[in-house]
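Continuing the batch. This is chain 6 of the set; chains 1 through 5 are on the previous pages. Same settings as before, nothing changed between runs. Recording input and output for traceability.
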Amino acid sequence: MPSQLIPIIAGVAGVIALIVIVFGILSVRSEKDLVEERLGRFEQDFQSFLDVEETQEDERKEDKRALDQIDKALSKRPFAQRTRQQLARADIKLTVAEYFVLQMLSPVAFFAVGFFLLFRGDIIMSIVAGFVGFFFPRIYVSRATSQRLVRFENQLPDTLALWVNALRSGFSVLQAMEAISRDAPEPTATEFKRVVQEVQLGIDVEDALGHLLSRVESEDLDLVITAVNIQREVGGNLAEILEVIGHTIRERIKLKGEIRVLTSQGRYTGYLISFLPIAVAIFLSIIQPGFMNPMFENRLCGWPLLGIGLALIGMGMAAIQKIVNIDI
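Output for chain 6:
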């Protein structure tokens, strides 16, 4: 075998190994484990109750996985709780330990791909690729969270209409939410199903709705939950209240769409002027390494210029996003 092919084969093998590990982690998790993990993402008030359930389940298992032990050790740490909440908002079926393992493997995989496949032994650009790989899981989780939130908010007016119809048909609040969990599209169905499951476990409706709001950080949903909680305390016609809120949310979504269309040119201009210099630098590094390598190898002049350029690009992108981001 030619010696030039050995690094390439090693890089490809590393990427394949990462993919196998990811799919292996996702495939070995049973449905019961997923339910328990989701129920474990509640607030601190109910953590002790869920810890008792998880402890009893662990005692029945003789073969404990290392990731479960790591996750259990990290479960009480503040950063682990924040990570668990972020994974819940993104609806990513991973434990905190599994997420941290993938975050440690991601820079290695990006570095291997950059060193063996893209940049052909360029250590500087490979380190940059590994640095990007370190932030890739966080970027993915953040993007998945935002996309899921947008889908939920777009479905919220129809969800409220279904809720109103169920209440006017004689359903209780809990029965109406159960009907939503059956008939609504994703992710609304999953979130309301969790609320129903929590109430069936003995958690108060107000607390279960609070857990829903912690998983879906939406101002519109906060308005809905506040109205439901007030109606439970003082009474009133909940169907009419939700109908008015649904109309308000529908008009707000319509206005957001119009504003997004009007500001689309500015947003895409910001993306273009921000990523075009980076894309050109990467392209030149691949096709003509000798043209860009002096910039990366000269620590006295090249590195400060790169840092200043990236800082200016970031400031310009932030300024453009601030201009086109209009709150309603």
